[in-house]
Every structure is written in structure tokens, then in C-alpha cells.
Amino acid sequence: MVDYAKTLAWRSGDVRHAHTAKDTILYALGAGGGSNPQDERQLRLVYEKDLVALPTMATVLASPGAWMRDHAELGINFGKMVHGEQSVQIHTPLPASGSLVGRSRVARLVDKGEGKGAIMHVEKELWDEAADTLVATCEQVLFLRGDGGFARAGGGDEPAAAPEPVPGRSPDQIVTMPTRPDQAALYRLSGDLNPLHIDPDFASKAGFPRPILHGLATYGFACRGLIESFCDGDPRALTAIRARMSAPVFPGDTIRLECWRLGRRIAFQARVVERDALVLSHGWAAI
Q: Residue 52's closest CA among 60, 62, 40?
């Protein structure tokens, strides 16, 4: 059973991460960047000349690793954990290369009840150590499917406010983005080496017909589509992005990004064209 007090008290400590232009390019390729090498806006994501970083790269920098699995005393069933939502807030543009420090903590732990699981919010701050400035704040919302019922032993937070759905009207803009058959093989090189995304036997045992694309890769695709459509290709113009990961994408699928302009905010969701499956929902970005 989850130990609420110990889990809320957990801190990652300083996680230092030095990244290079090559890492930034590799992340962008994993999110489909550079698919049109004649487009100068896309070229800036994958060419070291005037290189700029996608804001969602903050999710893979200075992360604490598999800390839930490594800290058995917390009582979290790591094998039944699902990544449900992700947000990134950019305070100053991510450097295309440099050294950052990540500091992670559990910000909220909600008991949904015995047999119903729990919701955990994990916050990561990224700091420029040399300048002592906050670069980005990321929040993971994780569904702990095997960990409901701990509140009866004491502890448990109130649920966060539900995210806003997208407008009921037709989208203002639609962006169609194909994924490559090797998209997951590319994206995993940015740090998530879970075999679910590359090993057919492992994926089959997990209940999938073949390896699936990382949810955060789909999230990166959405970020790139928003930047190309609403920021004239400049990643520095997007200051926040949040979305719920609703269903898996398979490498080779076509992502249809549906967007609504709401002043300085963009509401969005994403579907897989081939199955008309909603894969990102309750999305919004600030520009």
C-alpha cells in the first residue's frame, strides 16, 4: 500500500543534465521535426545553425528516472502506473545546449478508493545552475492503477480541478502530421527506453498488437504542430502546453491535430486518422 506521508515527502535532490545540440536535434527528430527539409522553420529544429529547442524537450531533461520502482518503501506499484497528463510551463526559452538541474517532488496524491487507483502529480523544476534562474516547470499526472485505498490509513489530497474540454464547434485549424514506422525507435533515444516501445514480444504481453509510440512523443508532435501553425515556427513563442494522453499511437499512424484559437490560448486535441481514435484530449497552449 502507498505510504502517503513518505511519498509526499519524497524529493529527487538535484539531478544535473548536460545536453548538447545533438541531443536537441535528436529530440526534435523523435517528435517528427525536419520532415520537410525545405521548410526553414522545421530546419531550425534539426540543424545546428540557429538551432532552437522544442519546449516539450523539458520533459526529458534532468528527470529522476524510475524513482518509484527504486524506492520500494513508498509502496507504489510501479508496474501498474500509467502516464495520464503532462504540462510544461516555460519561464525562459530552453537552451539548445547547456547544463540544467532538475528538482522533482510529489505535489499531490489523490486516493480514488479501494480498487479504483490513485492520481499522483509530480512536479519538476528545471534550473539553469550557473545563472540560478528557473527555466521551466513540468507536471506529470500519473494514474496509479494498483494503489487505491491508502487514505483509510491516513492522508490523501483533494483532486485537482478538471481540465477544460475543447470547444464544441468545428476546429479553426487542422494540422495533419504523419509518423514514421521507426518513430518510437527514434524517440526512445531521448531517454525513455521502455521496451513497450520497441520490443514486439513485450508489447504483445502488455496487450498491444505491436510496440506503441511514447505518449510524450505524441505530445511533442502536438507542440511542434502548434508552433508551426500559430508561432510562425518559433518555439520561443510558446510558453505553456498541457494535454491528456487518451489512447496510444502506433508508429506509422497519421496524427490529426485539431486546434481552436482563443485569444492568446490555443485549445487542441489530436486523433489518429486511420482509426479515428482520440489520442490527446483537453489540450491547451499559451502563446
A: 40
Please tell me the CATH superfamily of domain 173-286, with its number. Hotdog Thioesterase (3.10.129.10)
Please give the model's pTM, rounded to 2 decimal places: 0.95
230-261 pLDDT, tens digit per residue, is 999 999 999 999 999 999 999 999 999 999 99
User: What's the confidence (pLDDT) of residue 36?
Assistant: 86
- Expressed in percent and rounded to 5, the helix, strand and coil fractions of the chain are 30, 30, 40
CB 265 within 8 A of CB 163: no
Per domain, the residue ranges of the chain are: 4-153, 173-286
Whether 214 sits among the annotated catalytic residues: the reply is no
Establish whether domains 4-153 and 173-286 are of one fold.
Answer: yes
pLDDT tens digits for range 24-46: 999 999 999 998 888 888 899 99
Q: Is 212 annotated as catalytic? A: yes
Q: Which 8-state DSSP code applies to residue 160?
A: P
Catalytic-role residue among 98, 102, 117, 215: 215
User: Of 90, 119, 212, 227, which residue is the catalytic one?
Assistant: 212
Please identify which of the residues 3, 157, 192, 253 carries the catalytic annotation.
192
Residue 135: pLDDT above 90? yes
Q: Is 4-153 in CATH node 3.10.20.90?
A: no
Beta bridge partners of 285: 241, 266
155 flagged as catalytic:
no
Does residue 157 have an active-site annotation?
A: no
pLDDT tens sequence across 77-92: 988 899 999 999 999 9
